[in-house]
Design a protein that fits this description.
Structural class: mainly alpha
CATH superfamily of the largest domain: Cytochrome c-like domain
Strand content: under 5%
Number of helices: 5
CATH topology of the largest domain: Cytochrome Bc1 Complex, Chain D, domain 2
Number of strands: 0
Radius of gyration: 19 Å
Distance between the termini: 57 Å
CATH class of the largest domain: Mainly Alpha
Number of domains: 2
Order of helices and strands: HHHHH
Largest sheet: none
Shape: elongated
Helix content: 40-55%
Bound molecules: heme C
């Protein structure tokens, strides 16, 4: 079998596309809504944003529309007027993804 046989080329193209798709999706890690609800309540998000993100002292964030990147930025931000910052040590990237999925699922 030569290195550039037709099947080899097809296989490497497939692999390339697969890796490409993987890296494109990699910006939003898969989250678990049930865990998300736990982290949401544990971190007192519910005290300001309501039971399911429906709002209260903080804005309504149920069914959140912003992208995951912006969401994480909001969490980590230190200069918000009311909302406290949640650094990586409090809410990991994975926990943030869980909360994100939880919020997305509720309206
Ligand atoms: C002490 C009250 C308080 C707590 C606790 C709190 N927030 Fe907030 N949050 C706010 C307020 C008020 C705003 C809007 C203004 C600001 O940033 O201070 C906000 C803004 C946001 C936004 C941006 C909304 C938008 O449409 O721009 C998101 C997303 C968010 N909070 C998520 C969370 C999550 C997730 C938690 C828990 C980890 C949390 N918040 C905890 C009060 C709070």
């Amino acid at each position: 079998m030569t290195l550039f046989s037709r099947s080899n080329i097809i296989v490497s193209c497939g692999l390339f596309l697969f890796l490409f798709a993987l890296s494109a999706c990699g910006t939003t890690p898969a989250g678990n809504s049930e865990n998300g609800q736990k982290w949401y309540n544990m971190n007192n998000c519910n005290a300001c944003h309501g039971e399911k993100g429906s709002g209260g002292r903080g804005p309504n964030i149920a069914g959140i529309e912003m992208g995951f990147g912006s969401f994480v930025k909001k969490l980590r931000k230190k200069d918000a007027p009311i909302m406290p910052p949640f650094p990586e040590s409090k809410i990991s990237e994975q926990d943030a993804a869980d909360i994100y999925v939880f919020l997305k699922s509720g309206k």
